[in-house]
């Protein structure tokens, strides 16, 4: 599903050209249906979508090659003119496995998940450290992309001594619609649509990979909740420098209008989760939802 949403975004941008997609499990007709109708983001209305043949989709007049190959190294990306591949299966997340795409002619691979050994980059945080010779990178997780920009602002301005994060996370595809066996995570096997399910997350620790100064200072947990989209990060930190909550608000607002514009947002509106469905920003700071216990201890 991440791949479909990446394709939706790519087709609406002028600086990205979608040339090919790969899915070994569904037909082109079914691919068209799944692309056109989305339960969260609604119906696709930007181009007329048609099947030209079993290996080609038409988005308006734009032809997109369709592959149905299970082994990444057998996908002929070069034939379709693909330079960059988004690896969004959740299966090939380490460097060696993701490198299989390079054998088919891809020049760069971006993994849409955390990776144990590929360099991780979060836009707004450490993308300036990217070097052209890197051909496989990870974009970390959605939670890390939400947490890291906020943590960077707070750490740069006030210093973080230590912190705990809780994410209240929307349902994901790995969860169960009814109670089913889940040998590695017994709670994760419980029905997603009517339970609050405590879960582990490596998102807070991953911040230490993109912000080395915070390595070992953050950890956290997750609650999976019965919502379809939009998640919350709750960051509780001890600060090195004393700061009022108003000082923190001002710092985040300034960054959201400056270097982090379009990445980190700021709102004082009385918003709820569905107000952010489809928002392109990585992280939106809810100024009214946070609080301070003292000038060194805050919840954001």
Automatic annotation (TrEMBL):
GO annotation, biological process: glucose metabolic process; glycolytic process
CDD domains referenced in this protein's UniProt entry, alphabetically: GAPDH_I_C, GAPDH_I_N
Membrane-spanning segments: none
SMART domains per the UniProt record, alphabetical: Gp_dh_N
Site (Activates thiol group during catalysis): 169
Pathway: Carbohydrate degradation; glycolysis; pyruvate from D-glyceraldehyde 3-phosphate: step 1/5
Enzyme class name: oxidoreductase
EC number of the protein: 1.2.1.-
Listed Gene3D superfamilies: Dihydrodipicolinate Reductase, domain 2, NAD(P)-binding Rossmann-like Domain
GO molecular function: glyceraldehyde-3-phosphate dehydrogenase (NAD+) (phosphorylating) activity; NAD binding; NADP binding
Chain residues that bind NAD(+): 1-2, 23, 70, 112
Binding site for D-glyceraldehyde 3-phosphate: 141-143, 172, 201-202, 224
SUPFAM superfamilies: Glyceraldehyde-3-phosphate dehydrogenase-like, C-terminal domain, NAD(P)-binding Rossmann-fold domains
Keyword presence, Oxidoreductase: yes
Active site: residue positions: 142 (nucleophile)
Alphabetical keyword list: Glycolysis, NAD, Nucleotide-binding, Oxidoreductase
Residues in Glyceraldehyde 3-phosphate dehydrogenase NAD(P) binding domain copies: 1-142
Pfam families hit by this protein: Gp_dh_C, Gp_dh_N
Family: Belongs to the glyceraldehyde-3-phosphate dehydrogenase family.
Protein name in the entry: Glyceraldehyde-3-phosphate dehydrogenase
Organism name: Solanum tuberosum (Potato)
